Amino acid sequence: MIGRLNHVAIAVPDLAAATATYRDTLGAAVSAAQDLPEHGVTVVFVELPNTKIELLHPLGDTSPISAFLTKTPSGGIHHICYEVDDIGAARDRLVQKGARVLGDGQPKIGAHGKPVLFLHPKDFCGSLIELEQA
Questions:
Q1: Residues 56, 103, 43, CA angle at the centre, nearest 5°?
Q2: pLDDT exceeds 90 at position 61
Q3: What residues pair up with 17 in beta bridges, in sequence order?
Q4: Distances from the Cα of 101 to the Cαs of 51, 107, 134, in angstroms?
Q5: For 25-52, how does the pLDDT look when each residue is reduced to its tens digit (9 = 90+)?
Q6: For the chain, which has fewer Cβ within 10 Å, the N-terminal or C-terminal residue?
Q7: Of 11, 6, 10, 30, the residue nearest 20 (C-alpha)
């Protein structure tokens, strides 16, 4: 059911410093920062030959990333995103198998302009999983 690894998301307390680390120290190509108010984050994508790294920074005090950074002030891996061919069918199959979809269960448009869903980490070995329509 799951397809290719789309990205690994890392929550960071300082987006400019994290971007500079990937661009200047590691020599990676990085995108411009993009605010996603509906998700409460600002993101930068680090482009790699086979996947991406998503740097996440809180956008506002109610951002879910603020809570994550309170628990992990230096930042860390926040979630893993996999592509699926049909996000609705994937959601329905996962729910039938007992997985919990976060939020209202309806896909929202993510940073790539495609529908996304998040799955409860307790159902996936302690990892928050994002599914993105391929």
A1: 15
A2: no
A3: none
A4: 24, 10, 18
A5: 999 999 999 999 989 999 999 999 999 9
A6: N
A7: 30
pLDDT of 1 higher than 90? no
Among 49, 45, 51, which residue's Cα sits nearest to residue 19? 45
The residue type of 120 is H
Catalytic residues: 130
Which candidate, 101, 106, 92, places its Cα nearest to that of 120? 101
All structural domains of the chain: 5-133 (3.10.180.10)
Task: From 53, 54, 18, select the one nearest 39 (Cα to Cα).
Answer: 54
Task: Look at residues 58, 56, 60, 52 and name the one whose alpha carbon lies nearest to residue 76.
Answer: 56
